[in-house]
Amino acid sequence: MPLENHSQTDRRRFLKATGAVGAAGLAGLAGCTGGGSNGSGTPTINILTWEEYADLKDEIESNLDVNVQFTKSTSSSKMFSSWQAGQDTQYDIAVPNNNYVPKMMDAGLVDTVPKDVISNYGDVYDTFQGFASNQFTQDGSLYGVPIRFGWYGYSYNSDTVPDHEQSYEALFDPQYTGADLSGKLIMYDDHFKAMSAAALYLGYSDAFEGAKITLSKDQISKVKQTMIDQKDILQGYIAADPTYIKSFKQGNFALGQSGRNEIVELWTEGVDSATMATPKEGSLAWFESAVVSKKSDHKDMAWKVINQFIAPKLGAKLAKAGYSPSCNPKTQQNLTDHENEMYGSIDPSRLQNMIPFKAVENEDAWITAWEDVKSA
Amino acid sequence: MAPDPQSSSGLAADVRVLLRDTRVRLGLTVGPSVIWLALLLLAPLTFVVTVSFLQVNDAYQVVWQHASLANYQALFAGDGPFWTTSFFRSLVLSYKIAATTTIVCLALAFPMAYLLATHSGRVFKIVIFLVLLPFFTMYLVRAYSWYLMFGPHGVINATLLNLGITDSPLALFGYGQGAVVVGLVHAYFPYMLLSLYASLDGVDFTLVEAARDLGAGKIGALKDVVIPLTLPGIISGALFVFVPSLGAFVTPRFLAQGKIQMIGQLIEERINTLYAIDYGSAASMFIVLTIVVLFLLAFRYVSIEDLGGI
Amino acid sequence: MAERTRGQYALYAVAVLTLVFLWAPLLVMIFLSFATNSSTVFPFEGFTLSNYAQTLADTGLLTAVFHSVEIATIAAAIATVLGVLGAFGLARIDFRLKEFYRTFGILPMVVPGVVLGMALLIYFRTIIGVTTGFWTVVATHSLYGLPFVLLPVTARLYSFDRSLEEAARDLGSGTLATFAEVTLPIIGPSVAAGFMFAWIRSFEDFIRVYFVKGTFDVLTTAMYSMIKYGSAPEMNAISSLLVFAIAVLLAVAMVGGDVTGYVAGSEDGE
Predict the structure, then answer these.
(1) Whole-model pTM?
(2) How many other CB atoms are found less than 10 A from the CB of residue C27?
(3) Looking at the complex, does the CB of residue B229 fall below 8 Å from at least one CB of chain C?
(4) ipTM score of the complex?
């Protein structure tokens, strides 16, 4: 374990003051702040991101003179809160969802994008360049690079659920699809995703128009009440995407909130009965955006690594690993027709009709309402 | 010991003189652990109490001014009266689940503790092995094993369906409060058993027989002889089941499919998604206070040594 | 004992059912760890060892196991040193605030994990400002393990006949020699038991680590994400391996020493 170099006299005084055992512990505690990327020669870039990115390690290290160290994270909020709590010194790169980039900017955690280093940025779909300039550009400087995208709606098992006009109503009215789905419905166990679906079901699409999602107090309490009423017909709240896949295969539910990538993963596993719905109220589109810590010692190299994430070849590999299309259409050259159909050549104009994920205004009120739903 | 050179025996003598001083001996024995407890327990808990009266700014730093009861008010503020707030409901639910768990543990543990106390040799060794093995198995593994058992298509329901005992999954074996209680009983049952066993082990069962011979009847013998003798065991067992159940997080997380919210989950979510340490500190005060009250009550019946049995 | 009454049979029945209750989910899990269809018993599709092969090839998981062992060993060692020293103070020296010390000494195991974890997280992150990681977990677990050493060793020292030490000294033994030849052999088993408990508590702890671990993983946090993210085959296999390992260790410990006595806190069980 790396220990910081306290000077010898300091340490001795310290020992005297607190006793040997206590000091050993504190020195150990202090020691864990150092670490990682020191020394000369090949720099080490530490990356906090989703699991599939680690598949790119070998290619990145052979393309650039760099060591990359991936640490798996399972949510954007954890990436944000750990950086906020000081781990921005430990990591050079994080790849949260787009709605977290403004939060990181506000907290002064992230650096501006040097567009000349991100040579692939020009190839990124105009849609995403537009979203990026809209959501996380300040005084002409960009703060994040779009990497992958996807969207959330709901999906169902076509063996047990009849075709229907696709609407979020299916999640809230058990008879809506024509089959009785009471006790066979699931929602995301996430205040943002679940409450957004309820808000869209209630027709509050205006709230999603601005730079942030703005639900009024009244609207939040309507959303809350709707979700409390919904609880009786729910099988449960699902913790994360892979649980959805397992639970779907077990037949635990018939219809549930989900992202497109889970459904694609189910298709590749031969589960053809999984059907992705595009609710008429609109799907929620997300894209991941890479950011670099202001405190990174190797910012230039970090941006070069990020440039690799959307390079035609590596971006294609990433799309394959996570069943989610890359924001750079040039990745399509490296995918088969079948692959393109699932997670390659998705026309982003489809996203125009979708509602982009955004940061939430008055998140405390959302959380409080969510807790009320959970404890009802 | 080998014969010492002059200097060393001088040193030994010095050490002996030093050790005669109680303060030096105390410093050397309890000193290190006192430092440890002060740095890692007393200080953090003191800060939690302090932070519960303060606010946190947007940079997630504590604002060391304007102490107030605002965090506590926020816990009980909502659209309706305080008993409709999520915090109050979660707290009550947690008490309810912890109390049920404790009672079930007590009911299940008594027969087995009696069995252990009245047997020795082979039966004793085998039973104790069978009890201790799950006890030493990871808490998480045990919660997970019940996660497999419950659920609409979990092992229990799948078995019932396949045996034709039922034709649709039974809600009883689905995820929910019942499953959470089962998971918690499984997790903390051994604490109760071992506490009861420790106190029953000293009981002279001929006394029980004697009481019954004297016409006390079964219930009477239980009430007048067995329960008073085992009271310390019951109390310490109940404490060691109730307290961790109250703060449960993993078990309700997996065995209720997100449909219920205990206080531990509430605190965890606020901390890990918002880093709302002011809210979390105030909320955790209710757990801490409950423990303090329970322990003060318990000390009227049992000594601290009895409590430390486990 | 008197002949068995109906009441006694009822007691036996409850005891046996309780054992079934304790074991059923673990046995089902072990069964599933060998089953091709790893998430539920029906439809049964045959046995396989591939779940184990997959688990033992998962380097991320093995690294997490290594972290857990490392942390448990360091933390239990610190807890043992502090706890044994503290036990001597409690048993041999009269001091003011002794009850206060004793109460604080058992608190780390009494405070619910969510509260202790959160309190230490706030303390480390916000108050002291260290980055959470390996050493914050070690510090947390060394505190958590302390009572598990302090209590059995203190109990042993109380029941220990000090005249033995005096006799050794009268026979001309030095302080150190008396300690090594008389005291240590007597308290040795309780020290070992304390170390073992502290080790196990650290190894199996999830919630405290979850708060103070930062971004690295130990076994329990890796398993938590497995359950949350639904990798049943690996979860069954690693959990079953743990049950097997603990069964062997416990059997050895029970043949070698009085585990029950220490667990139940009754020293006369010997």
Answers:
(1) 0.82
(2) 13
(3) no
(4) 0.85
